[in-house]
Amino acid sequence: MAELTSRQGGRVAVRKPQVYAWVQDYGVYAAVLALLLFNVLFTPHFLDASNFRTQLVQVTPIVIVSLGMALVIGTQGIDLSVGSVMALAAALTVLYLGYGWLPALIVAVIGGAVVGAAGGALVAYVGVQPIVATLALLVGVRGLANVLVPQLVEFRNPGLIALGSSSVAGIPVIVLIAAALTVIVLFVVRRTTFGRQVVAIGGNRSASELSGLPVKRVLLTVYVISGLLAALAGVLATARLQASDPTSLGLFIELSAITAVVVGGTPLTGGRIRVLSTVMGALLMQLLAATLIKHNLPQSWTQMVQAVIILAAVYATRKRGTR
Amino acid sequence: MRRTELEAVLEAKGISKRFPGVLALDDVSLALRPGEVHALVGENGAGKSTLIKVFTGVYRPDGGELRYQGGPAAFATPMEAQRAGIQTIYQEVNLVPMMSVARNLLLGREPRGRFGVIDAAAMYGEAERVLAGYGVDTDVRRPLRTLGVGAQQMVALARAVSVDARVVIMDEPTSSLEPREVETLFGVIRKLRERGIAVMYVSHRLDELYQVCDRVTVLRDGRLAHTGPLAELERLKLISLMLGRDLNEVRSDGLTSFSRDHAGEPHRNGQAPVVEARGLTRRHVLDGVDVSVRPGEVVGLGGLLGAGRTETAKAIVGALPLDGGQVLVAGAPLRAGSTAAAIRAGVSLLPEDRKAEGIIPTLSVRENIALAALPALGRAGVVSEAKIDRVVEIFMRRLRIKAASPHQLVSELSGGNQQKVLLARWLAVRPKVLLLDEPTRGIDVGAKAEVQALIDELAEEGLGVLLISSDLEELVEGADRILVLREGAVVGELSGDEVTEERIMATIAEQADG
């Protein structure tokens, strides 16, 4: 009976779903382009390289975190612990900086992976709801980071500072890293068995189980990747700040990351992952804030406009997601 | 028989209920009299649950009239029906698991002391007294969830009955009860009958129906098939009413597209089974089921709804946790509880519920077909699009899957084409045995014929098939051998000339021992 309805529904309303589908697929790109065009026409100095670079550098941690978030959301999950993982990474980085910046970075990333594994194990093997499991980690890991490094610590490690502030061909290194990670995640989602399995599990978990997919292992891995990426974002943010600040680093970034994923058109109901659109989602929100600030509108305006965009994105996603 | 003269307490008169694309109830009439236990039976999709939901205010009928206690009734919500005195006990207990047994029993009617505070001592005393009458002897202060399912169900029943019920509807109340608990339940039902309460009893366990019910109503395909006193109705007749088979008119060859000659292949008996399940056991569900399938053989599983057919198939592929039993594939034991291991060994299940357990609605036809075979369609974890394209093309052509393109969303296809996509998913992993659970349910006639022809063809090529179907004709014409299940146990095996619709029904109808 459900088959019948969906078939009939499809025939009656052919045009509308097409419009929604277009908005869902390309809406973010169109919005980013429109905003860029607006700025080119009406915002003085917008095309200056330094302005551009600032925008990109600022959005980098959000982009990296939201890549992992997109994977998690694709499985119908959510990862609230990412901000605290960034803080833990900042703490671990400064603690192990004595061994050189690269070993410190590796320790920090391992720390993030361990937190991700904890969350993933709770979700996949114990059966805790993702929002609850990662909420516990959000609180606990921030506490752990603060215990390790109770206050802001500045550092003078030239390697780490260079990582945060140097550029190659005029493009900041951390932006290049974010771009490389985007390409890797894109490849994983589109071209690997693992990526296909992630999407299938998000689309229908019991069907995936009956199809012999390693559901639990895949879920665990997804959270590990999210933790890993968040830790990397934490190290890069610390490198740029030239100080480790576990108290405030990454606060509320989970919300920015979820926003980027949602605005990019990945449904919270899982079964679909849109990597490039997620990056575009993060850029859109960044650009929007910058535009409104440049035109002397208060912060509160930015927040309200962002809310409208989130609702619009969810509405567009809903149309096709519910079929 | 005095009671038959009484006026009905709850009556459906010519009730119709339509859902998009399907007429769930078509002019159904049923009268429930005070002090009778009325059995409501029918196979999947017969309209039982819809009728119950009309009675309990969940659905409003599109046509016909509902009468309650002599006047017209229109319950806007389940709450209204409950307040009027229609209580329902569902399979899944719907109480509050974290609250104490006593609170659950007396929820909303707790004895109050001064200032409206709940009088805990009185509440516990009252609860203990009430539950003792139902054979539940437990500490009523404990949270409900610490009780066994059977005891929880008794609490639900006690609660339903204690709130001034005139009609009690029980939906498969014994499905998770121990024999002793079933006896207690029947005792309670008999007491209800004495008190003049009307009981509607929904169950597939024929033995229970004949033990406790006075009258029976049979629904089939949304229509009333029969209503009348139960004692006068033969078991075999009841089953033929449920399955929609006229005993005199069972055709020998008919409308299905199976064409293989099952008698002419005796050589198979010599071959070793490719899959062999021994003593599959799970409490309340399966009771020592043995099944084996030889290469090229189609084994049918017969039985009524709830007899354990689906569960047997799920147990074989490791998707149902077992208390005991073993599955051997080509003589080697399969790791218990691992669907992945079963698939690697060559055993795959086409599940009954296409939407919930089959398709991945967010993915395309292509991705759905490739899903189970993914590890084989790539190297080092990177998928090969070319290999996927090839496999998808082969199966889309062979199974004649009608889609705009392989990239169309699978959820946009018709039911028949979705089913073919799932068959393609399994054929792509080159199984040795396919377990097909209701492979032609809910698909159109053309697709049905194609699927049936395909089953023949696959068996011809040496694939072992376990076929589950509620369509007796499909079962008889498709299968070489049929195992009949009842209440989780194999109660008969039919082969050769014995594979007929009459024999299946007769086997289902046989009295259980003791």
Structure description:
The complex is a heterodimer of chains A (323) and B (514). With 323 residues, chain A is an all-alpha fold. Chain A has one domain: ABC transporter involved in vitamin B12 uptake, BtuC, CATH 1.10.3470. Helix content of chain A is 77%, strand content 2%. Chain A contains 14 helices and four strands. Chain A has helices spanning 2-12, 15-42, 49-74, 82-95, 101-126, 130-148, 158-165, 173-191, 193-203, 205-210, 215-241, 253-263, 275-294, 299-321; strands at 153-154, 167-168, 171-172, 243-244. In chain A, strands 1-4 form a two-stranded antiparallel ribbon. In chain A, strand 2 (167-168) and strand 3 (171-172) form a beta hairpin. Chain A is globular. Chain A starts with a helix and ends with a helix. Mean pLDDT of chain A is 89; it is low at 1-14. By secondary structure, chain B is α/β, with parallel strands linked by helices. In chain B, 32% of the residues lie in helices and 24% in strands. Chain B contains 17 helices and 22 strands. Chain B has helices at 48-55, 78-84, 101-106, 120-132, 149-162, 179-194, 206-212, 235-243, 309-316, 339-345, 354-358, 365-370, 385-398, 415-427, 445-460, 472-478, 501-509, and strands at 10-19, 22-32, 37-41, 63-68, 71-72, 86-89, 167-171, 198-202, 215-220, 223-229, 275-282, 286-293, 298-302, 324-329, 332-333, 347-350, 378-379, 382-383, 433-437, 464-468, 481-486, 489-495. In chain B, a hairpin with a 2-residue loop joins strand 4 (63-68) and strand 5 (71-72). The longest helix of chain B has 16 residues, at 179-194. At the A-B interface, helix 1, helix 9 and helix 10 of A face helix 10, helix 11, strand 18 and helix 14 of B. Chain A: It is found in: Cell membrane.
